[in-house]
Amino acid sequence: MPTGNGRNTKWKGSREAWLDAAFELLLESGVDSVRIQPLAKRLDVSRTSFYWFFKDREALLDALVERWREKNTQGLVRQTEAYAESITEAILNVFDCWLDPRLFDSQLEFAMRSWALQSEEVAREIDSADESRIEALARMFERFGFEPLAANVRGRTIYLTQIGYITMKTQEALEVRMRRIPAYVEIFTGQAPQARELQRFQARHGGAREVAT
Prior knowledge:
Layout: H1 15-29, H2 36-43, H3 57-80, H4 87-99, H5 106-116, H6 120-143, H7 148-167, E1 171-173, H8 174-189, H9 195-205, E2 210-212
Antiparallel strand pairs: 1-2
Helix pairs in contact: 1-2, 1-3, 3-4, 3-6, 4-8, 4-9, 5-6, 6-7
């Protein structure tokens, strides 16, 4: 076993490595596959090294939920709070989430919602996340002068539309999504986006080929 301050930690991995491997299994095969022995095999480390980082499997699953909460819920909330000069620009900031998995991971969202079908605790987490996300979207509309009820309905419409895309596992070519973006923005806000707003949005996402939602 390696020793010393500069020792190679491959023999036990790292907390982040265990979490990354757990997410891979969650996405590939669902929560039932997220178990210590398969993870150790995937990481090529000792099974007992798991306990350097987590008390038990439940602690690992709790960490998965926390990481999802930070990535998807906080990622979406941050986009609703991003600087924008108009509501249409603000909506395009939110749409960044649907095109950039670094901001919001749709595959992870699908996996979590599938997990929630088996776990009342995770289902409660999903309910809480849905409420927080819709509230953030409503606050964004209110910031641009929409009345609270209208802001809430518009926020719910945007959010439930996207969750529908995710649960249906819809896939769209980027060029198809980009053609639809201006109409989505106008339907959701009642205002057509400015050409310069669309150009900035398109420039942010011009490198992608396909949108999986």
